[in-house]
Structures are given as C-alpha cells and as structure tokens.
C-alpha cells in the first residue's frame, strides 16, 4: 500500500499541447471501395495518436462525404484533378495542389504511389512489385502495411471499413417504401438489395435483371431493391417504383447519388453485390452481403467482413486476377478466329513496326492499314464480349441458397395485408 | 511584397506604353521591382518604359512577345515573378485576394482570365470560346529539384504553347485578370504575328479571329475590313 502511495505521489500531470499531436494525411484517388478501405488505416493512425486528415477523390461520386463525421478523421476533403494536378478546394475557392498541403503534415500516406497498380489486362508492374498488388493479398492488410502498420497486430474488428451517412439521407430513406417509418417504426418484411455491376465487365454478373423475379417467386412478400442503369428501383408484388428523393436532380449537389445509395443499402436485410465499391459500403454498415467473385478470390476483399457470404466460382481458371473487361481465355479464342492477315497486322502494330514497312509488307497504304487494324481490334472485342465461364458458373440457385442462409433463420412471415400497409 | 515575399513584375512590351502603365499601376501595391523587355520601335515609348522600369532592356521588334518571355523572366531579381502582358489589369478587389494564396508555400499559381474585346460600342466576352482561360502568371523564380536550383517555369518561344513546369506545388486560384482589348488592336497584333509563328499556331489564330468576328456581326465585320483591308487576304489564305 505504501508503495502504491509513493507511486501516486510521483505521478505528474502531463499536459499535451495541440502542437505535440502529430498530423497525418491520407491521400487516395480511386473507386468508392479503394477510398473506403483506407478507413481502417485512418482509424489505426488515430489510435496511434495522430490527428488524421483524409483527402480522397473518386470518379464514382463524392466519396469524401462518406467519411465526413467519422470520429477518427479530423477532416475529410475532396481531391479534384485540375490540369492533371490533384488539388483540394480551400474556403476561398482556390484549388491548392496536394503537394503544397503535404508540407503541413508530419506523416503523409499517399496511396497514389502505392498498392493499386491494377491496370486493365495484366499487372504491368511485374516482378516483386506484383506482391504489392491487392490481387495477391487482402487489400486492407496491404493498405495497413503500406502505412507502416503491422497488420497482424490490428484486430479484425478494426479492419472493417466505416462510413457516416448524413442524417438528411437517413431521414429521407425512412419515409420511403423501404424505410421503417412507413411501417410505423417496425418493418415487417425483408429488403433484398441487388447491385451486380462492377467497374469492369468480367466482374459483373450479367443476369441481374432476372434475379428480382426469381427472388420474388421464393420470397413473395419481401421487397427487392435493384440498382440498374444508374437508378434504384423497388419491386414488390404490387408493382415497381423508383427510389429517389423528390428533391433530387441528377446535377444537383443537394442530394448526392452515392449517399442515396448508401442510405438505401443501410435499410437492407441482405445485399447481393459484385466485387464493387458498394460491397464495402454494405460491409461498413454491417449489412449481410452476398458478394459474387469471378476473377479475384473473395478473401482478398472480404477476409475481415463478418457479415459477408461470398459466392465464388469454382472453374479451373479461377482466380485469373483479371480486372479487364474481358475473359483472357475468351480473348485468346477471339484472336484465334481472326484471319492470318488480321493477326499479322495486329502483331506488326504490337511490335511497334514502322507503318511504311507494314504497308510494304501488305502491299497497302497507311490509311488502309490503320482501318484494317481498327477493324481487326473491333472484331476481337466483339468476339471476346461473351459471358465468361466464371460468370456463367454462378447461378441464380447458388444465390438463392446463400439468400436462404441469411434470411430464413430470421425470416418474418409477413402477410399480404401487413405488406399493403407498408407500401 | 506580400507576407515577406518579394515580387518582380515582368513584362515584354511593344509600343504600348498607354496600356502597360495601367497594367503596372494595377499591381503596384504588391510588386517590388518592374522588369521590362522592350520590343518597341517608337522612341517616345522606349523613353517612357525606361523611366518606369527598375530594369530595362531594349531588344528588337519581333512581332511576338513569346520570343523574349523566358529571357525577361530570367532577369527578375526577386523571389517571385508576376508575369503580365501590357493589355491586362488586376482589379483592386482581385488584388486583395493575393494575400490568400501567399498563405500557402506555393511555387506556381494560375489565374483566371476575363477576356473582353470591344468595337463600335459592342463588347464580346470570349468566355464562350475560352471558358475561364487559366494562365500561369505567378511563380517562384527557382525551385529545388534534386538539390539543383532550376527555373520553375520554362517558356517556349512558340505562340499558343504552354510552358513546362518543374513543380507540382501549384495553385489554381480563384483570382481574375481582366484582359480588355479593342478589336482593331487584336487583329493588328495577329496580322503582325502571323509572319512569325508556326503554321499550326497561325491556323489557330485565324479560327479565333473568324469566331470573334462572327460574334460581332456583319456591320462590325464590314467596318473592320474597311479599316484593315489586308484582313480578308489573311483569313482567306
């Protein structure tokens, strides 16, 4: 006891000045998922005592808004590319390049020069750099490692992405046919979401349009929400409707399409999705997800997602790690179907042969050779655009089986009368 | 001087003192030095420029300022270079905003341009063709690249070609320059320059003149052709 008193006597009050807190900056330009999976990095840095700013930019939408308000992120700012320079708009509406802003931080984690080198087709970095690619390692682990964080010492729970949805979106969604409010705070049917378009064709599931009908046959009283052609649609046995705020206009900044999608996903009981950014939005919201994986192994994306039920193909060529539009095997088959002359013209082009030499070889003129090359390439593209074996191997029945696993244990036996009230 | 940063105003001029003096006066409160490279042929203009410049170099008339830009900017003696043409001005409310950009450790700043052309009481805003027309106009004379000091901006001697930048520390500011010109002056400048620029640049300029004349309408076109008869031949060839 005496010892304890002595210890407490020796304790001094240490004041931490704001200038003592180290500032870290995370930079990422990419898809929604690419930006989202860096929230575990931000959280870990925050836990290490950093004040973390996150600058992100995505052609898919205002992804930075998803991080605005996260407790471990001090500022979430939008990166915009001006004349090829990544900039952030300041309060006076000047676009300041991130290279200037980096000077204000103790640590800068610029993911532009890091893990993702997944160009279309093949991973062109080659050699040992392939090991830095998220096709070969779980990409959250990889992102943590890139920030000099030992990912083996970060708990699985802390490897989950996190987002914030602005209250106005949640208020809106609750007033819609899929929201709780419509049912007086107690929803009585399941909401099943479908979004099967990935950023590349080979990772998309082509038959998404057929799914709502198939699901309805099995779950007639539930609502199916599907994202098709840029809009969310609600389908029920009573018909279909669009799910969009009344005030929403496509070019309006008042309602952001990405946050609308996040709000809709937040209401789902199950989300059937491709290897796309939305699967990570669902993971951040703890929504049970059936992720369809064709060319890339599911564990590279979903290893730490506790509510994930991945559906992976078992074809012999899986995983081929292709992020291109087309299956490499189908592409090869397409190339085989070309005429000998077409093959040779493509070959000359790929070898970088001088056009004059090519003309001499084929007894033609530059304009005609160029036209032949374009035509041959288009033919390859057309012949390659067939459903790949890995995509074909995933069937509706497999999806339904997973859906049963998620919904049946807690399925609500809603009656048509109750559903009428909801709608 | 702003935020302890000293600025050289650099201008390549040519027989246009009446315009240049407005440009210099519009930024007088923030600059520490005026560097003028003078292509004037008029003796009176030369005298006037010599009087207002801290550093004055007279050179030959080339019909095009681009030939002397890099030379002019290398003469600057201060940390930052503000590049202006004689027919540009910065309004006081815009000049006030310069303080905002000097809060950052920038190496190059772009400005937006309000391009107006006047003739016969009609004013045409070129926003339709050129949008906000951003230009790099303020930069540090040198930057450190791999331990060596190199010019931040390297200008080509070609018209309508962007310079090369040796820095990514750039600001795309929300500050406007006013670029006001008379139609007659614009056409005369282009005619003079026509002999000294590349065929591609010449074609760009002809398309530009055609578009501007279309905006002014038939009456102004007729009037301009009377004033500058060689215009028709210039546009036809």
Q: What topology, given as strand order, has the largest sheet of chain A? A: 10-9-8-7-11-12-13
**Poorly predicted spans of chain A:** 117-130, 412-423
Distance between the termini of chain B: 48 Å
Major sheet of chain B: size, sense and barrel closure?
A: 9 strands, mixed
Query: Into which percentage range does the β-strand content of chain A fall?
Result: 15-25%
Radius of gyration of chain B: 18 Å
Mean pLDDT across every amino acid position of chain B:
92
Reported by name, the CATH topology of the largest domain in chain B is Spore Coat Polysaccharide Biosynthesis Protein SpsA, Chain A
The number of distinct β-strands of chain A equals 13
Strand elements of chain B, count: 13
CA-based shape of chain A: globular
- Please give the share of residues in helix of chain A: 25-40%
Structure write-up:
The complex is a heterodimer of chains A (423) and B (237). With 423 residues, chain A is α/β, with parallel strands linked by helices. Chain A folds into three domains: 19-159, 3-Layer(aba) Sandwich (Rossmann fold), CATH 3.40.50; 167-320 and 394-422, Glycogen Phosphorylase B (Rossmann fold, 3-Layer(aba) Sandwich); 328-384, Orthogonal Bundle (Arc Repressor Mutant, subunit A). Chain A is 34% helix and 16% strand. In chain A, strands 10-9-8-7-11-12-13 form a seven-stranded mixed beta sheet, with helices on both faces. Chain A has a six-stranded mixed beta sheet with strand order 5-4-3-2-1-6. In chain A, α12 packs across α14 (366-384). Mean pLDDT of chain A is 83; it is low at 117-130 and 412-423. With 237 residues, chain B is α/β, with parallel strands linked by helices. Chain B folds into two domains: 7-182, Spore Coat Polysaccharide Biosynthesis Protein SpsA, Chain A (Alpha-Beta Complex), CATH 3.90.550; 183-236, no CATH class. In chain B, the strands form three sheets. In chain B, strands 1, 2, 3, 4, 5, 6, 7, 8 and 13 form a nine-stranded mixed beta sheet that branches. In chain B, strands 9-10 form a two-stranded antiparallel ribbon. The N and C termini of chain B lie far apart (48 Å). The interface between A and B is medium-sized, with 15 and 17 residues. β5 (95-97) of chain A pairs antiparallel with β13 of chain B.
């Amino acid at each position: 006891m005496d010892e304890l008193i002595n210890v407490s006597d020796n304790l001094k009050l240490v004041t931490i000045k704001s200038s003592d807190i180290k500032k870290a900056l995370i930079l990422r330009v990419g898809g929604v998922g690419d930006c989202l999976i860096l929230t575990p990095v931000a959280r870990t840095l925050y836990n290490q005592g950093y004040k973390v700013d996150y600058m992100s930019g995505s052609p898919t939408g205002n992804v930075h808004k998803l991080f605005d308000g996260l407790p471990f992120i001090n500022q979430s700012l939008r990166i915009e590319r001006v004349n090829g320079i990544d900039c952030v708009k300041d309060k006076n509406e000047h676009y300041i390049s991130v290279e200037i802003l980096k000077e204000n931080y103790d640590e800068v984690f610029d993911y532009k020069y890091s893990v993702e080198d997944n160009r279309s087709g093949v991973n062109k970095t080659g050699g040992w750099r392939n090991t830095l690619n998220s096709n070969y390692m779980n990409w959250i682990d990889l992102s943590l490692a890139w920030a000099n964080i030992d990912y083996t010492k970060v708990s699985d729970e802390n490897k989950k992405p996190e987002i914030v949805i602005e209250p106005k979106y949640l208020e809106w969604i609750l007033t819609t046919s899929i929201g709780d409010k419509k049912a007086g705070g107690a929803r009585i049917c399941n909401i099943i979401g479908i979004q099967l378009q990935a950023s590349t064709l080979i990772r998309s599931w082509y038959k998404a349009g057929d799914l709502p009908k198939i699901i309805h046959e099995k779950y007639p009283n539930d609502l199916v929400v599907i994202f098709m052609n840029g809009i969310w649609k609600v389908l029920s046995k009573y018909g279909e409707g669009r799910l969009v705020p009344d005030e929403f206009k496509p070019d309006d900044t008042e309602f952001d399409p990405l946050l609308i999608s996040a709000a809709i996903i937040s209401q789902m009981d199950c989300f059937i999705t491709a290897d796309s950014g939305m699967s990570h939005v669902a993971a951040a919201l703890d929504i049970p997800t059936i992720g369809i994986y064709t060319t890339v192994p599911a564990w590279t994306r979903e290893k730490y997602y506790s509510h994930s039920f991945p559906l992976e193909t078992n074809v012999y060529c899986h995983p081929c790690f292709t992020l291109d539009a087309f299956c490499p095997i189908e592409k090869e088959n397409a190339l085989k179907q070309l005429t000998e002359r077409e093959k040779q013209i493509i070959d000359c082009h790929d070898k970088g042969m001088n056009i004059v030499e090519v003309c001499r070889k084929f007894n033609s003129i530059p304009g005609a050779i160029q036209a032949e090359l374009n035509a041959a390439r288009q033919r390859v593209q057309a012949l390659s655009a067939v459903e790949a074996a890995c995509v074909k191997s995933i069937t509706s029945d497999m999806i339904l089986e997973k859906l049963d696993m998620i919904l049946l244990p807690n399925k609500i036996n809603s009656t048509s009368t109750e559903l009428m009230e909801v709608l | 001087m702003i935020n302890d940063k000293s600025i050289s105003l650099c201008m390549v001029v040519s027989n246009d003192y009446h315009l240049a003096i407005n440009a210099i006066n519009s930024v007088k409160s923030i600059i520490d030095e005026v560097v003028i490279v003078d292509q004037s042929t008029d003796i009176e203009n030369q005298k006037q420029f010599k009087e207002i410049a801290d550093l004055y170099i007279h050179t030959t008339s080339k019909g095009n300022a681009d030939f002397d830009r890099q030379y002019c900017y290398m003469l600057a003696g201060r940390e930052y270079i503000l590049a202006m043409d004689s027919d540009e001005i910065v309004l006081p409310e815009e000049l006030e905003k310069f303080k905002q950009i000097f809060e950052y450790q920038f190496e190059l700043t772009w400005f937006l341009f309000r391009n107006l052309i006047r003739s016969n009481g009609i004013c045409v805003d070129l926003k339709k063709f050129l949008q906000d027309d951003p230009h790099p106009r303020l930069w540090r004379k040198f930057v450190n690249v791999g331990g060596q000091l190199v010019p931040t901006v390297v200008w080509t001697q070609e018209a309508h070609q962007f310079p090369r930048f040796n820095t990514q520390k750039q600001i795309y500011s929300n500050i406007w320059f006013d670029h006001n010109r008379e139609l007659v002056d614009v056409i005369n400048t282009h005619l003079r320059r026509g002999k000294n620029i590349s065929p591609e640049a010449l074609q760009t300029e002809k398309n530009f003149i055609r578009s501007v004349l279309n905006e002014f309408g038939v009456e102004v076109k007729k009037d301009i052709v009377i004033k500058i008869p060689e215009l028709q031949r210039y546009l036809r060839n």
